Amino acid sequence: MFEVLFYILNKGMKFIESALNRDGEAVFTRAARGLMSLIPTPLVFQVSGLWKPNHVLCRENVVPASEIVAVEETEIDKKQCDSGKWQKMSKLHAFTVHYIKRARNHRWRCSEITFWCIDEQLCNQWIQALKELLDSQKSRPKQLLVYINPYGGKRQGKRIYEQKVAPLFNLASISADVVITEHANHAKDNLFEVNIYKYDGIVCVGGDGMFSEVMHGLIGRIQKDSGIDQNNPKTPLAQCSIRIGIIPAGSTDCICYATVGIIDPETSALHIIVGDCQPLDVSSIHHNNTFLKYSVSLLGYGFYGDILKDSEKKRWMGPMRYDFSGFKTFLSHQYYEGTVSFQPAKGTVGSPRDKESCRTGCHICRQTKQLEEQQKNYGFEHKEVEDEWKVIKGKFLAINAVNMSCACPRSPKGLSPAAHLADGSADLILVRKCSRFNFLRYLVRHTNQDDQFDFPFVDVYRVKRFQFTSKHLEDNESDIKDVGKKRFGQFCSDHPACCCNLANSTWNCDGETLDSSAVEVRVRCQLVKLFARGIEIYKDEAAYNSSSNELLS
Q: What positions does the domain DAGKc occupy (predicted)?
């Protein structure tokens, strides 16, 4: 007969005897469950170094097998063996289970439990059974290609990877080939040269700009290998099966925040280790049958484009440049004339005005995937459906198209709170010309719980495709106006005696500038996949604290 020490560092730790998780997946293999039946009760239980005998485990306490990070044999501390009742026992054998522990605000941490017993064979059986269980989870990556931007944000990318991420990858037996980028588009160009198919995923350490570079390289490589011309906007694109992981280390980490719920390197690393998979819509941007860029978060013209253009001249200020340029752009209060035409997303469930946000296991995103698979089975995936187009002309302070909420710590709801990550549509937000005071009211609502679309000068539509052409480009058809523009600049139609209004703005494409007066944008449903699971939702804060490993449907 032997006794087992259940050493636990978290009061919410959950352990299973023979139950199944909600997905019907056994938390331990049959062999492991058989071993569990050999353990007598009562068990000896230790919390924070205090011995508490005769503590019986509850069947409701569960650690899902999918959230075990690693299992390893452990050497017993001699001081522990020589203390108390353990003095009477023979040599102890132990193994440690490293698992995910949930904290507040979607933060994950790697915690551990150590099991002791005097039976070496039993200990080895447990280790073998648990390792076989982890090996059977095919979604977990074994080999990764990592790109680190050493210059992004506060220039902490390399340090963050080496101190916070690499130790976790090593613990989980994940090998990584690391590339330190030396110039712009280094990662993008490299992805066209390396053998990407030997990797289970590609990880970028940096901000949204670094993610965009890796995404463009991956999508471009897949299309090249598939013989697909990206310049043809009507051509369906090949989906990328290789997942992308994001380790946040930049000035802006909007994509990480909107898909994980927090900007935290360790949390993101753990999502990669357990092999999470979150499909993501991507918008392709073309001009005159020429491919320009891809976008996954914000494609903004006017206000957000002007902020980015001005901030690019002030990179020496660091992240503070966005605040300075934002204030300056708000005071300038520029508007732009143009024509927006769009194709409503009729087959999409939900509306931009919904109160429910996209979360883990989102039923709307799942339905979209099911519909896409049905269309593929019946051979309809390549058929171009020409629904009715709507056309809006006017003067706009901002034209924003978002494929996700674009939430961030300063704006927890984002630009469009009900936008979905993988429903095959984008939310098109049109902010018409209004007073500075009203525009300020609109901006302030991004930081509180009020409806930011509840203004007469704001319109929002869920679309599959849209086009924009600036009035300035339309006017250029006249040779006379072209000459006048070159000599005198574009005169404001409302104030002929001044030049207060600029002719064109710049597009803010996921934090990168894009100069084009006319664009065509199409949403590519679930084109890429991330090592993420969407933002998890908990029933309430009390349940969250007391049940930190709650399984989600």
A: 139-289
Determine the residue type at 304.
Y
- Residue span of the structural domain in which 398 resides: 286-350+358-378+387-473+506-522
Query: What is the Cα–Cα distance from 106 to 229, expressed in whole angstroms?
Result: 40
Residue 497 placed within a domain: no
Where in the sequence numbering do the catalytic residues fall? 208
Give the CATH number for residue 296: 2.60.200.40
Which segment, 45-59, 354-368, 455-469, is predicted with the most confidence on average?
Answer: 455-469
Residues 227 and 225: their CA atoms lie apart, in Å, by: 6
Adjacent-strand bridge partners of 93: 117
- 51-75 confidence digits (pLDDT tens): 233 333 343 457 788 999 999 998 8
**229 and 329: one domain?**
no
CA torsion sign, 372 to 374 to 377 to 380? negative
Same-domain check for residues 269 and 171: yes
Do 16 and 144 share a domain, yes or no? no
Amino acid at 201: G
Q: Would residue 494 count as lying in a domain? A: no
Gap between the Cα atoms of 267 and 245, Å rounded: 11
The total number of structural domains in the chain stands at 3
Alpha-carbon distance of 364 to 351, in angstroms, equals 11
Q: How far apart are CA 295 and CA 402, in angstroms?
A: 9
Mean pLDDT of the 430-457 span:
94
CA–CA gap between residue 509 and residue 335 (Å, rounded): 19
**52 and 96 co-located in one domain:** yes
Q: Name the pTM for this structure.
A: 0.82
CA distance 527 to 507: 22
CB 187 within 8 A of CB 204: yes
Q: Are residue 268 and residue 290 in the same domain, yes or no? A: no
Q: Cβ(73)–Cβ(95) under 8 Å?
A: yes
User: pLDDT grade, residue 376 (50/70/90)?
Assistant: low
CB atoms within 10 A of CB 437: 8
CB 8 within 8 A of CB 47: yes
Question: What pLDDT digit, counting tens, does each position of 466-503 carry?
Answer: 999 998 776 665 543 444 444 334 434 444 334 445 67
Q: What is the distance between the alpha carbons of residues 154 and 127, in angstroms, rounded to a whole number?
A: 42
Instruction: Check whether residue 130 and residue 147 sit in a common domain.
Output: no
Are residues 25 and 107 both part of a single domain?
Answer: yes
Is there a domain that residue 544 lies in?
A: no
